[in-house]
Amino acid sequence: MSAADAIAEAPNVATPLPKRRPLFAAILFVLIALLPLAVTFGLPAHWMTLVTRAMIFAIAALSLDLILGVGGLVSFGHAAFIGIGAYATGILITEGRPEALLILPVILIACAIFGAITGAVSLRTRGVAFIMITLAFGQMAFFLAQALSAYGGDDGLTLPERSTVLGYDLFANRTRFFYVVLAALAGCYGLVSMIVASRFGRVLRASRENATRVTVTGFDVGRVRLIAYVISGMIAGLSGFFLANQTEFVSPAFMSWQRSGELIFMVVLGGTGSLHGAIVGAIAFLFAEDVLASWTEHWKAIFGPLIVLFVLFTRGGIVGILGKLAGRRDG
Amino acid sequence: MAEPVLTLDGVRKSFGALKVTDGVSLAVAPGELHALIGPNGAGKTTLVHQISGMLRPDTGTIRFRGADITALPPEKRARAGLARTFQITSTIASLSVLENVALSVQARATQPLALFRNAARDERLNGPAWKAVEAVGLAERAHVPAGRLSHGEKRALEIAMALTLEPAAILLDEPLAGVGREEGERLIALLKSLKGRYAMLLVEHDMEAVFALADTVSVLVYGRVIASGDPAVVRADPAVREAYLGEEG
Predict the structure, then answer these.
(1) Which residue of A has its CA nearest to B53?
(2) Number of domains into which chain A is organized
(3) Which residue of A209, A225, A257, B78 sits 20 to 30 Å from the alpha carbon of A78, by its own alpha carbon?
(4) Mean pLDDT of A258-283
(5) Separation in Å, CA A28 to CA A51, A55, A190, A263, A269
(6) Which domain, by its residues, includes A176?
(7) What is the chain A residue with the closest CA to B86?
(8) What's the pLDDT tens digit per position in A154-203?
(9) Angle at the Cα of B155 (from B153 to B161), degrees rounded to 5?
(10) Does B165 touch chain A (CB under 8 A)?
């Protein structure tokens, strides 16, 4: 048609889209997988524990990045899901049921229910109100855990043993546990990547930028956000399972609002919305904490300003910086 | 005359004491291009918001394809085939032109929210999206992020997104606002090419465009329709000249 031809003549050159870098994530996982070998060649042995812990938090940060980075929903109560996962693990093991194939479905269902209820309420709001309501729900979970006097209350709960998988003691060995957590992290990364690239993910991304447009296009934005919120909570619950098994201890502090804040820092530090950024952010966060804490007990006084400076002067977090460096070398 | 696609009957909306829509009734027939004109502050955009479902009228009914849609949320109106564009262009800036249109195709697909299949390589979305992108003349720009388009191109993109909803009616809220002369002419040509195929309600300031395109013109002043009918008749109406056209000579 002539109108179409006329507009098609607009003198503009198509610009290529920025490429996604699954390569980056692959390199990252290979580097992590080589750590046990590197430790036998002289890296500090406590790095094994540290990186395992970092990977556990990376699972939670990754799940937060789905709603925060991709969906644009700043949840300040995400640690509640870690807590639910950890407490479900702790309570079931205490009651003599360490089987992971029982514990994991319980965690996923519990987190889905908690996410559906709190999400249905909090997603009625946006912006600061959303932050405040998710914070309030997080605190509710925190105080509920404190009130669980049968399971340690304020003091927390020491686990008599670790989980087993089909009766097999999979988590007893430190290296084995490390690889199980790595596999879980890689699996979660693959899952979340697929979701982001799906039809659902496209709608979620689009609704962060322009919810009105997505609505008049025919999508129920509230429903899309709720589904993302529930999925995100279920994945975070999984990290609670590993956290309880690593520390062999569960306490209300797992779901404190400070912990929720740390998760947000990890995502921002690594680079929001990129997914592998959340993993890098979690690792960087825990290493920075470890190094600074070894220098001085007032490490938080250094760490806080460092984070502020980092957020002020970098766009796109660590992943953004690495991407820029790689881009400069390419071109 | 055929049964109207879209009918407004006694629609009223007030913000406090201000009557923004004061008993508007109008009908758009299939294939008709119905222009809605009126001075600034006449309540044109508020009316479009009520038709598309972003605002709820206080009283009155809106019927679309024979069904009362007054209480229907906007996403359901869109799925029923009532598409709209915005006065201030509204696209997803970081998504490419093709992805924006594919998003719109997706809304009417059988599994609009499938969780795992890759969307970017989905030919069931990209195929129809390409057709719409070509129809509005954006094929050369298909892979450019919508945020980098010129103003007129964004308008064309919005129209492409509306077309993929397979609409029975399209609401066009000032598609020529802020568009340069040359791009404006292209858009007018595009709207002309769509004329007759879709029922369109065109809100527009540009009188030249309105009288070139419209089958019917309604004039909205202070929330009321003061005249409605054939463009030539409306243009000659003394009340209209006084209220609106007079200023332009």
Answers:
(1) A216
(2) 1
(3) A209
(4) 93
(5) 12, 12, 13, 20, 16
(6) 47-255
(7) A213
(8) 999 999 999 999 988 888 899 999 999 999 999 999 999 999 999 999 99
(9) 105
(10) yes
Say whether B142 and A197 touch across the interface (CB within 8 A): no
Distance from CA of B241 to the nearest CA of A (A): 33
Who contacts A20 (Cβ-Cβ below 8 Å, separation ≥6)? none
The per-residue pLDDT for B57 is 95
pLDDT, tens digit, 9 for 90 and up, residues A87-126: 999 999 999 999 999 999 999 999 999 999 999 999 999 8
Please give the residue of chain B at the shortest CA–CA distance from A190.
Answer: B116
B91/A210 touch (CB, cutoff 8 Å), yes or no: yes
Considering only CA atoms, give the Rg of chain B: 18
Shortest Cα–Cα distance, A179 to chain B (Å): 26
Q: Where do the DSSP E strands lie in B29-123? A: 33-37, 59-64, 67-68, 82-84
- Amino acid letter for position B20: V
Sign, CA dihedral B202-B206-B210-B213, equals negative
Q: Which residues of A touch B75 (CB under 8 A)?
A: 215-221
In a domain, A192, yes or no: yes
Q: Using CA atoms, how far apart are residues A318 and A200, in angstroms rounded to an integer?
A: 27
Contact A199 B113 (CB under 8 A): yes
What pLDDT is attached to residue B212?
A: 87
The residue among B94, B70, B69 whose CA lies nearest residue B80 is B69
Contact B151, B184 (CB under 8 A): no
User: In this model, does residue A330 exceed pLDDT 60?
Assistant: no
What are the backbone angles phi and psi of residue A34, rounded to the nearest 5°?
A: -85, -10
pLDDT number for residue A314 = 78
Chain B nearest CA to A209, separation (Å): 6
Mutation pick from B103, B118, B192, B194 vs chain A, by most beta carbons of A within 10 Å, is: B103
Q: Verify whether the Cβ–Cβ distance A202 to B73 is below 8 Å.
A: no
- Provide CB contacts within 8 A for B89, sequence distance 6+: B151, B154, B155, B157, B158
**CB–CB of A209 and B93 under 8 A?**
yes
Among B78, B119, B186, select the one facing A6 at the smallest CB separation: B186
Please name the residues in contact with A143: beta carbons below 8 A apart, sequence gap of 6 or more. A252
Spell out which residues of chain B touch residue A273, defining contact as CB-CB under 8 Å: none
Residue type at position B93: A
Beta-carbon contacts of residue B75 (< 8 Å; ≥ 6 apart): A215, A216, A217, A218, A219, A220, A221
Place of tokens 């629609």: B11
- Collapsing DSSP to helix, strand or coil, A183 comes out as helix
Is the Cβ–Cβ distance between B77 and B52 less than 8 Å? yes
Q: Are strands B199-203 and B224-229 parallel, antiparallel or unpaired?
A: unpaired
In-domain check, residue A115: yes
- Judging by DSSP bridges, how do beta strands B59-64 and B6-15 pair with one another? antiparallel
A151 found inside a domain: yes
Q: Which residues pair with A164 in a beta bridge?
A: A99
Q: What is the CATH number of domain B6-89+160-248?
A: 3.40.50.300
Nearest chain A Cα distance for residue B227, angstroms: 30
Mean pLDDT of B196-212: 89
Task: Please answer yes or no on whether A197 and B138 come within 8 Å at the CB atom.
Answer: no
In a domain, A314, yes or no: no
